[in-house]
Known about the structure:
13 strands; Glycosyl transferase; alpha/beta
Amino acid sequence: MPEPDPRSAPARDVVFTLSRETLRDMAIRSYMRPPDRVLLTLMQSPRVRRLLVAEPFRSRVTALAKGDPVVAIPPTSRPDRYVVSARRWRREDPVSPAMLRHTYRRYDRVLRRAAEQARCERPVVVTTYPLLAGLAELEWADSVVYFARDDWATYPPLERWHPAFQDAYAEIRRRRRPVVAVSESLRRRLAPTGGSLVVHNGVDPAEWERLPPAPALTTGLPRPWCVYAGTVDDRLDVDMVARLATESTVILAGPVKDERHAAPLRALPSVVLPGHLPRPAVTGLIAAADVCLLPHRVTSLTEAMDPIKLYEYLAAGRPVLASDLTPVRGVGPRVRLLAPGDDPVAAFREVRGWPEVTEAERHRFVAANSWSARHVELLDFALGGDPERQRQRRPAARPAPPIEGHARATSARAGEAT
C-alpha cells in the first residue's frame, strides 16, 4: 500500500531553536548560513501553521551592561510567527554534566511555556544545537529533530564542551531522535539510530540570477584574482594560499577570527584581507574572480562540513580549486581537488584554461541547488509524521532537481521568557 504524500497532510506547529547565536546575528550576516535558511523556509512554508523561534539563553549581565538588543526578525506577512528570548545570569553554559543537564531542562521548561502561550499543539521541535537535542526531555513535543550543520565536538573555540557534545550525541542516539545532517560524512559520524537524512547546503537564486559587479576594493588589483569567501581562521591552509599568491592576487574576503592565522598572510604583498564585507560585495567578488578557492586544511572539522561557499562559487560559474575533502567530492566537474602533494600553482594554471560555462548552464546549476529545492525533502522528513518510516534515507543526488520559487518571510513577536 503506498505511503501518503506528507505534503498533503495538515500544517504542523513547529518550535525552531537556535544554537549559540541570535536572530540579530542571522540578520547581520544576511541569513546566509544553513540554520538561517532553515528558519526562512519554516517562516515561509504553508506547511507550518504556528512557528515559535527560540533564541538561546542570554546573560542578564550583558543586557544590563550593553542594553537589551532589539530582536531582528525576518520580514513576513504571517501573524502566527513568534519569538521567545530566554534570560539567565551566567554568560556561558556550565561545563559539568550535571549542571548542563539542569541548564537544558530549565530551557526545556522555557520552551514549553512559550509554546503554550503561542498555542502550539503537539509541535515538532527542530533544534540546531546538540546539547538541547540530547539533554532536554522535550516530552511535550510530538517529535524532536536535530539539524546538524557541523560536528560541534571538533570545533576548536568550544573545546571545553567537546565531552559534553559527545555525551549529547550519545543521548540523541539513545533517544532515537531523527537527525538531518548537511553532509554524509557528518551523518556517519553522528551515527543516528532514529530517522536520518542528508540535506546539502544551497544557494539563493535571487543573488545569482544576475551576477553583481566587482566591489570598489578590487580597483587597481592586478589580475588574475583568486577569491576565498569565508572566515579567516585555522581552517585555512596558509602554505597553499602563499603559493597561489606567487601567481595571482589572493583576496580572502571574510572576518579574521584570530590574527595569528592572518599575520603570515598579511606579510605577503599579493594577499588582500579586507575583513568583513557586506553581502553584495562578497557576491561581487565571487562573480569577478578568475578562480575561487576552498583552501581548507584536512581536519575532523572540515571533513564533516558542506561548505556553502562551494555552491556559491559554482553558481557564479567560476572554476574552483579545493582541498580534497570528502564532502567536496562529486559536487561538480568544475572543482579541481588538490590532494596532498599536488602543486597548487600548476592546478591554478590548469583551471584557468577551462572553458567558461554558459549562462544557461549556470542558471541550471542555481535552480537545481537552490535552498528551496533542498528544503522540500527536509520539510517532508521533519513534518511528515513518524520518523521511523524514514530511517536512513539517502541524500538526493547533487544537483537536486530544480524547483522554482524563493519567497521572503517575516514574523510577529511574542513575549519574552524570563
